[in-house]
């Protein structure tokens, strides 16, 4: 039996040395050291050998097993190194090429993404999306929205007026000045002129004012909302704002209204949403003051209110009798929502076209 063990060792040395791949080496290992291998069978049957030969056979078998194991480990290390080298040569790739799947050529700007989110939410609430002209008449931008002639917003330091070489004559209406709209609210009057009540619509779009700092821009995006029908109350306004803001900022949000003044709503309010970073407590989990809401637990978002009856007076011929219909309006900046959702501290970053910022929203 000792002779057979020595023959097994010679055969194993030859087979291991001849293995030209890790797969072939594994076959050799199984053949000599596997559960069904001849050497393994000899080791399992040692107990049946005559006691006088037990020690010599056991020693020879263990020596052969250790020798084969050492040879396999040495050969495996050499084969793996060779296969890796071959793989690096054959499978060379250009790491500068796009990954798979290929990266999209571009993506929506965060302002556009935020605008579409708001539109989707309001469409789900039954509102239609409307658009209006960015170059507007003073009549729609101010007069029909109950702004008196001496209102500060009409001054040159607040509003961009368009030079058209004099006032524009509009048939049946007399001269009107032309300007870049300061809000999307002019579509309130235009929409009511075109459609009888009830009406439920939002107007997203660009607006223009003479402001420029970290939270204001000469051009910015605004969403105006209008709902007019029979029996609409301030409670409906609050419920609409609550449903909208919960879709945007999370299902646990609360809102509050604070008295304010706008020429085209009465009563008028400003509305806030409970802070989604500190959950309205004003403090972060580590006890520090919340920087987003500045420790008050509320974030100011925009203005709203019940439509002033004087506004209905400008569209009474279209069926908007202030004695039979009521409505509410609200407005807020899209940049404001985007800044809050994405933690952007300076509104101007949205317009700098810095790909390091914009690529975060791909």
Walk me through the topology.
Elements: H1 2-18, H2 22-33, H3 38-44, H4 51-90, H5 110-124, E1 128-129, E2 135-137, H6 138-141, E3 168-170, E4 174-176, E5 178-180, H7 186-194, E6 199-208, E7 219-229, H8 234-249, E8 255-262, E9 265-274, E10 298-307, H9 309-313, E11 326-333, H10 334-342, H11 355-358
Parallel strand pairs: 1-6
Antiparallel strand pairs: 2-5, 3-4, 6-7, 7-11, 8-9, 9-10, 10-11
Helix pairs in contact: 1-2, 1-4, 2-4, 5-10
Please describe what this structure looks like:
Helix 1 packs parallel to helix 4 (51-90). The protein has 362 residues and is of the alpha+beta class. The protein contains eleven helices and eleven strands. The longest helix is centred in the first third of the chain and has 40 residues, at 51-90. It is elongated, with a radius of gyration of 39 Å. Helix content is 38%, strand content 20%. The strands form three sheets. It has a seven-stranded mixed sheet with strand order 1-6-7-11-10-9-8, with helices on both faces.
């Amino acid at each position: 039996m000792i002779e057979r063990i020595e023959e097994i060792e010679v055969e194993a040395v030859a087979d291991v040395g001849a293995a030209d791949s890790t797969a072939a080496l594994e076959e050799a290992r199984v053949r000599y050291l596997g559960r069904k291998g001849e050497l393994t069978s000899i080791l399992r049957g040692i107990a049946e050998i005559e006691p006088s030969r037990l020690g010599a056979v056991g020693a020879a078998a263990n020596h052969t097993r250790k020798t084969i194991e050492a040879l396999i480990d040495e050969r495996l290390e050499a084969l793996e190194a060779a296969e890796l080298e071959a793989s690096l040569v054959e499978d060379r790739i250009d790491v500068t090429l796009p990954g798979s799947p290929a990266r999209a050529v571009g993506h929506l700007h965060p302002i556009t993404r935020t605008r579409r989110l708001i539109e989707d939410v309001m469409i789900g609430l039954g509102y239609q999306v409307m658009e209006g002209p960015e170059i507007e008449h003073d009549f729609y931008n101010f007069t029909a929205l109950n702004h008196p002639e001496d209102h500060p917003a009409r001054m040159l330091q607040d509003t961009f007026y368009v030079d058209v070489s004099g006032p524009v004559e509009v048939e049946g209406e007399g001269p009107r000045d032309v300007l870049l709209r300061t809000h999307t609210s002019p579509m309130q009057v235009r929409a009511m002129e075109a459609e009888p009540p009830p009406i439920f619509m939002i107007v997203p779009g660009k607006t223009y004012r003479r402001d420029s700092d970290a939270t204001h821009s000469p051009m910015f995006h605004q969403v105006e909302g209008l709902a007019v029908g029979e029996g609409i109350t301030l409670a409906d306004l609050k419920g609409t704002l609550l449903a909208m803001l919960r879709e945007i900022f999370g299902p646990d949000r609360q809102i509050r209204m604070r008295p304010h003044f706008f020429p085209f709503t009465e009563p008028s309010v400003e509305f806030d949403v409970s802070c989604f970073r500190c959950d309205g407590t004003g403090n972060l989990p580590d006890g520090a003051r919340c920087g987003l809401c500045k420790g008050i637990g509320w974030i100011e978002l925009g203005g709203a209110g019940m439509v002033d009856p004087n506004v209905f007076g400008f569209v009474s011929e279209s069926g908007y009798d202030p004695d039979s219909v009521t409505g509410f309006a609200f407005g807020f900046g899209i940049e404001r929502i985007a800044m809050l959702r994405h933690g952007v501290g300076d509104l101007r970053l949205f317009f700098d076209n810095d790909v390091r910022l914009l690529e975060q929203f791909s």
